[in-house]
Design brief:
Length: 354
Amino acid sequence: MAKPTAQSARRDFLKSSAVAAGTTLAAGTTLLGGAAIAAAPDAPSLSPDGLPLRPFGKTGHTLPVLGLGGSAFVQLFNASYGVPLLSEDERVAIVRRGYDAGIRYFDTARVYGESERIMGRGLKGVRENCYVATKVHVPDPKRVRESVERSLKELDMDHVDCVQIHSPAIEAIGFEGAMKMHAELLKLRDEKLLRFIGLTTHVAFETVHKMIETGGFDQVLLAYGYVRRGMNTILSNGNVEFRNMCLAAAHERGMAIVAMKVMGANMLNHNSPKMVADFPASRRAKLPAAAIRWVLQDERVSMLNIGVSLASDVDQNVATLRGETRYTPADARLLADFSAKLYEAEPVKAMPVS
């Protein structure tokens, strides 16, 4: 892939820096794309689209707290998400629907198959208003450049806001190998192919905690939802404690903290009937909103990165965050009642504990 010219790289970088400098949480300041914050100084900050805003760690950005994850609408994982796979054009339209509704954080990965291409198509013409994050998962740190350049080609972008070291890579090559990947990402950051460096994990919380403590990262994406779901596992008590340590350490260092698995990998939405068939439909319909509000109550969390499979997923998540966002006793009872049955369900009992 051809690298951006020095002139275009400098122009884009200065433009991004100017955007970042204008994203403080005060009335009258601006967000990505130049939109004004709609809240008064003494009121909760909302985007012009009515979504709650939070500072995105030390990146200098303030973003709507709802992100759109690109793993739940790809062929690779479709069998596990409980809904039919839509055409590519329909999935591109879902990305644009999220943007039009006010979402500005978009997360994808090199290993998600067609996800990067779909994201790039969906954000065509509005990319400068968005924070785009992808991931690198390679067995050899020397292949980091190749992976990032392929991501940029698929996205049809000359840079991304963040490249994250993907959880499977961390699990495969451990702390030392992952930090060698970090060293390669630093070189690419110097070349303006990316602006920030992150890391992700579903299960490797002990290793990720050690990586966070190096101080070399800008953001972290963690499996953090009401259901103790890893990738295809249930998190052990010990792993939950290391996750809590990751949250505390990242917050202390001013990192952006992004929560994934908010829906428990669809256990609390599309797959809930398969998991707990006898739960009342009227209560089942309220599970996704309760799950969002459970995570949102942790003020350390900068972003809820929620994968979507259907346009209705976008609409539902946006409606929840435009409405009452306080976690209520009714939410707590609902999630407790459902999870009591969920953890006893055969599909969940068959999952390994990590």
